[in-house]
Design goal:
The complex is a heterotrimer of chains A (about 325), B (about 350) and C (about 350).
Chain A (H helix, E strand, L loop, with lengths): L13 H5 L12 H17 L2 H30 L4 E4 L2 E4 H10 L6 H32 L3 H5 L5 H34 L2 H7 L1 H29 L2 H25 L11 H12 L15 H24 L6
Antiparallel strand pairs in A: 1-2
Chain B lengths: L16 H18 L1 H23 L18 H7 L2 H4 L27 H17 L3 H44 L2 H5 L5 H29 L2 H32 L3 H18 L9 H15 L15 H25 L7
Helix pairs in contact in B: 1-8, 2-6, 2-8, 6-8, 6-9, 6-10, 8-9, 8-12, 9-10, 9-11, 9-12, 11-12
Chain C lengths: L4 H5 L30 E10 L2 E11 L2 E7 L5 H8 L7 E6 L2 E2 L9 E4 L11 H12 L3 H14 L15 H13 L5 E5 L7 H16 L3 E5 L3 H7 L2 E6 L2 E7 H7 L5 E7 L2 H9 L4 E6 L6 E6 L2 H15 L3 E6 L4 H9 L6
Parallel strand pairs in C: 3-8, 3-9, 6-7, 7-8
Antiparallel strand pairs in C: 1-2, 1-4, 4-5, 9-10, 11-13, 11-14, 12-13
Helix pairs in contact in C: 3-4, 3-5, 4-5
The chains are: A mainly alpha (about 325), B mainly alpha (about 350), C alpha/beta (about 350).
């Protein structure tokens, strides 16, 4: 769909006679500019809600846990290097203490960021359900979609705008905090060696975030376009993320089914894709017994394709506003 | 031209708030029936859960131990136990060091030691234990039943099915009206506000029970014999938990404008995390009391309840008291709050 | 021109003109009955939404008739109406319906509310919707059916009430809202933008209906931006501005109170300049200008309209002036609203 800006040279300057304003003589930007504006406004709409601030607070809790735990890890190692601490009168050597903390992977390594994004995912999933309902569901339910579609933008521009808004939300919840953790790790260790040696971690974080952004934004928009109302949307959303995780744990860890059964857990697949971006060693992934990276990538690509196909079908629908 | 209004209607039949209350209950029930999209989604999700449980039940291993594969191998526990018998360990084994065969590589302590008879005898004795255990019917039944109880009852049902479906329906009792901005039609009727709250709760409760208990029954019936035992043993806990969660989420629906999101945060953060914590914090979680009821029921029947992973459960009397008090207390709090609150969702 | 007050007030007392004057009791007669408390009474009511003052010391009393509530957007009309039907509580002051607190559910028996929102149970037909609300009022099935048919007939929706609300036009939805407000035969009808979306023929029908209702003794409080329609309906208005009642009374009374704004009167004569010289000599005249248009005339701005018209009448008789037309230019509700609210009428 092409949207040519109107030719202002031939248009009469009506405002000259009425308000004595000098009419704007620039060239209107194209629909992609409108997409950016839509994303900006949608994000602002989300961030005005107190519930969203509550979810941000939860996300901040997770971030602070990782932030201070990383600091604690380094502090213990540097301050108490050769000492012994006592817990309830029981002496514990520092090596044993840091070994425990290392198991949590709070050392600026691949799994620090992988685990952070995993745990942040619990908040992100709920925030996305709210975002889908507010940004897209409300447009259909309360009939504000015609306001968008009456403007010189296409339906795909509308979808892109909403996806960008959701991407902005994810960036605030996941990408920025993860990058802050990377920066903190560098400052806690030798920054010259850390930042240069682990630059690929930063690239990996951005890659992981991109994977999340593309997959989840498409999925949220597709689900919201399908269901529109908050309650069924949340039901389905929990059915996509919470139940498969429960099921995969039951089947693989509880009933010893083959590891490929973990592929039903979309969040785990995204996690594996993210770890691939972070170039994690498959043998170090916890819990053990994970499918291959390419298998997870295939599932994620399938989800993206299914969402796009559904959106394409809805975009082509004639009665999209009913 | 509109017709002339006849004489004022006789006042022989003054409106009765009791009738209004009863009608509102019925209306609240019917609204969920009419708004079918949520029902179909819930039904579909429940069907998915039940299907998976049924497939696992119907599989060769089911919920039992003997035919279950040892983790990350291709052999079953029964086969592994047989391979530990002296009659199998002394044969030369032609196997590869991978998992693609039906033989498990022998660990050092499993290798026969014919030159040290004492060690060999003790080894034979100890390595025969798995085989003997697998012949014990009570052990196998207990193991299988506890596995089903732990994963399906405590985790899938109490951790996902029950809270999610009661949340969907109970929070929508008032929450959906607020979202659709149709609450004004109820609030302008000559009914006390606390009665509106109570009627909405009682009208939605059958749906919560249908999906809460119906889901429970469906999960149990799809779980074969263990499921039927669970149905008979755990149904009181399921009823108590369903009603208590309904009261909680009904209150959430009246207090928050997006109750489903608040409810999800409550369920998957508070209930999930707090119920697993040691110490006293878990006493704030309703799921903990439901788990305690199930734990005590299984313990009273003589099952090995240590496998249920319920830390420091309370007694059944305490659990019943807390769940009942929570239901009544939260409903009264909701009635009081609703009677005092102004709703401007329709502005 | 609005209908004369007497045609509306024949059977109904006028709006905020206070209680009827009771005759002096004779020494041997029974003590006079205590007058009924006003149907709607706002006593020094203020309402805050956070730091925003929506209503500011509003005092208003209605005993009957039709009262128009006019004001710019954001003046506080909806807040006032919602307080009157018990949806909002005043921060300060009191709102009563026949002496009963408007928040009390029993007060809602006397009040019928037609909101301006456009949210229904969209899956129901118009008939089902009205019938359901009748049942929620507490009527039996038979009574609810009878009342439903009656009110649908009154609002002209009887033949079209079987379609689902989802397919209704704006005007039809408006009529359904009005129907549900009339179900329980309330004494006080609060109508928020009842003419919004109604076609001109339908508007006339509804105006006649409102007049019928008033003639039956009902009190109507109508908020509307359609001042011309309101003027046809009633001469009695309450004007709101910035959360206050700026003026209450008939349009003429309010106009007379606007001393800062002299009355503008157009006078069409053959020799306007000569008349202008004579009119300028009158003490009440502030300014005179020649009228624009095809017919020659003057526009006179005069204080104290009553004295001016008396003096002008004497002048015309004495000087044998042939006057073709005398028309006050700013006695309409639109003009009064403009003066009260200032400039373009915005707050």
């Amino acid at each position: 769909m092409t949207n040519q800006p109107p030719n202002t040279d031939t248009m009469p300057a009506q405002t000259d006679t009425l308000l004595r304003y000098r009419p704007w003589r620039g060239t209107p930007h194209g629909p992609l500019f409108a997409t950016l504006a839509m994303a900006r406004v949608s994000l602002r709409l989300l961030l005005r809600r107190r519930l969203m601030w509550g979810l941000f607070a939860l996300g901040l809790l997770v971030f602070f846990f990782f932030f201070y735990a990383q600091y604690l890890m380094v502090w213990i190692e540097t301050q108490l290097r050769t000492e012994t601490v006592r817990f309830a009168g029981v002496p514990v050597t520092i090596d044993n203490l840091t070994r425990f903390l290392k198991r949590l992977a709070l050392d600026g390594s691949v799994h620090t960021f992988g685990n952070f994004i995993w745990f942040q995912g619990y908040v992100l999933v709920i925030a996305l359900a709210l975002a889908g309902s507010v940004l897209v569901g409300n447009d259909f339910y309360y009939g504000s979609l015609p306001f968008y579609l009456a403007k010189p933008i296409g339906r795909w521009h509308y979808i892109l705008g909403k996806c960008l808004a959701i991407g902005g939300l994810m960036t605030l919840l996941v990408t920025f905090p993860a990058i802050l953790l990377w920066i903190e790790a560098g400052l806690l260790y030798d920054w010259k060696s850390y930042y240069f040696d682990n630059f690929d971690l930063l690239v990996g974080i951005v890659g992981y975030s991109l994977v999340l952004l593309v997959t989840l934004s498409l999925l949220v928009v597709a689900t919201a376009v399908w269901l529109r109302r908050t309650v069924p949307l949340v039901l389905v959303w929990m059915g996509v993320f919470v139940y498969p995780q429960l099921l995969s744990t039951l089947l693989v860890d509880g009933l010893n089914f083959p590891d490929e059964w973990r592929l039903i857990d979309l969040w785990n697949n995204l996690y594996l894709c993210g770890l691939w971006c972070l170039q994690a060693d498959p043998a170090t992934i916890r819990p053990p017994g994970q499918p291959e990276f390419w298998q997870a990538g295939l599932v994620v690509a399938g989800v993206c394709a299914a969402s796009l196909l559904y959106l394409r079908r809805r975009v082509q629908a004639v009665e999209i506003v009913t | 031209m509109l017709p002339t209004h006849p004489q004022s209607v006789s006042r022989a039949c003054d409106p009765s708030p009791v009738i209004g209350f009863a009608v509102l209950m019925a209306h609240s029930f019917q609204r969920h029936w009419r708004v079918r999209q949520m029902g179909w989604v819930a039904f579909g999700l429940l069907g998915l859960v039940v299907t998976v449980v049924a497939v696992v039940t119907a599989s060769r291993a089911g919920w039992d131990l003997p035919d279950r594969r040892v983790s990350r191998t291709r052999i079953t526990y029964r086969e592994y136990a047989e391979q530990l018998l002296p009659s199998e360990r002394y044969f030369v084994r032609d196997y590869h060091d991978d998992i693609s065969t039906n033989l498990a590589p022998q660990a050092p302590w499993e290798r026969p030691a014919p030159l040290t008879p004492t060690r060999d005898a003790i080894q034979n004795l100890l390595l025969t234990i798995p085989y003997v255990v697998l012949q014990s019917e009570p052990f196998l039944r207990g193991w299988g039943y506890m596995l089903f109880s732990k994963w399906i009852m405590l985790r899938v049902y109490l951790g996902f099915v029950l809270p999610l479906f009661t949340l969907a329906y109970a929070s929508a009792a008032i929450g959906a009206e607020r979202e659709a901005r149709s609450l004004i039609w109820l609030m302008t009727r000559p009914l006390p506000r606390w009665a509106i709250y109570l009627a909405k709760f009682l009208g939605t409760l059958p749906w919560c029970l249908a999906f809460g208990l119906g889901g429970f029954a469906a999960l149990c019936l799809s779980g074969g014999e263990y499921g039927r035992w669970a149905l008979a043993m755990y149904w009181p806990a399921a009823v108590a938990a369903t009603i208590a969660f309904s009261a909680v989420f009904h209150l959430v629906g009246a207090v928050f404008s997006r109750p489903i999101v608040v409810g999800v945060v409550y369920v998957f953060f508070f209930e999930f995390l707090v119920a697993l914590l040691p110490g006293s914090l878990k006493l704030l979680s309703l799921t903990f009391y439901a788990r305690s009821l199930m734990y005590n029921a299984a313990a009273a029947a003589g099952y090995p309840v240590s496998r249920l992973d319920v830390a420091e459960p309370v007694s059944s009397a305490t659990a019943w008291a807390v769940l009942g008090a929570a239901t009544v207390g939260l409903t009264l709090v909701g009635m009081w709050l609703f009677a005092r609150s102004e709703y401007r969702d329709d502005v | 021109m609005p209908p004369a007050d007497t045609s509306l007030a024949a059977n109904a007392p006028s709006g905020a003109e206070g209680a009827r004057r009771a005759p002096l009791p004779s020494p041997t007669a029974a003590p006079p009955p205590t007058p009924d408390p006003p149907l709607l009474l706002f006593e020094q009511v203020s309402k805050w939404y956070g730091t925003v003052l929506a209503l500011n010391q509003v005092t208003l009393e209605l005993t009957g008739g039709i009262t128009g509530l006019v004001g710019a957007n954001g003046a506080g009309k909806s807040t006032l109406l919602r307080m009157a039907n018990g949806q909002l509580k005043p921060t300060l002051g009191r709102v009563t319906i026949r002496g009963l607190d408007a928040w009390d559910w029993r007060a809602r028996r006397r009040v019928g509310y037609c909101p301006d929102l456009d949210a229904f149970y969209e899956d129901l037909s118009g008939r089902q919707f009205v019938w359901t609300l009748a049942r929620l009022c507490g009527y039996t099935r038979a009574e609810a059916t009878e009342r439903t048919e009656r009110v649908l007939e009154r609002v002209g929706m009887r033949e079209r009430a079987n379609r689902t609300l989802r397919g209704y036009s704006k005007g039809m939805r408006q009529r359904i809202k009005l129907a549900q407000a009339l179900l329980h035969d309330p004494e006080l009808l609060i109508l928020d933008e009842p003419l919004s979306g109604i076609d001109p023929i339908g508007r006339q029908e509804l105006l006649e209906l409102f007049q019928q209702l008033a003639s039956q003794g009902k009190c109507l409080l109508i908020s509307s931006h359609e001042l011309e329609a309101l003027e046809k309906l009633t001469n009695h208005v309450a004007i709101m501005a910035r959360g206050r009642i700026a003026a209450v009374g008939t349009l003429r009374q309010i106009r007379d109170l606007l001393e800062d704004y002299p009355l503008s009167v157009r006078i069409d004569v053959d020799q306007p300049r000569e008349l202008a010289r004579a009119v300028l000599a009158l003490a009440e005249v502030q300014a005179v200008s020649l009228a624009s248009g095809d017919t020659p005339g003057l526009v006179v701005q005069a204080r104290h309209p009553k004295r001016f018209f008396q003096a002008f009448g004497r002048l015309v008789v004495e000087q044998h002036v042939e006057v073709h037309r005398v028309e006050p230019l700013d006695e309409s509700a639109h003009a009064i609203l403009g003066y009260l609210l200032g400039g373009s009428g915005r707050t």
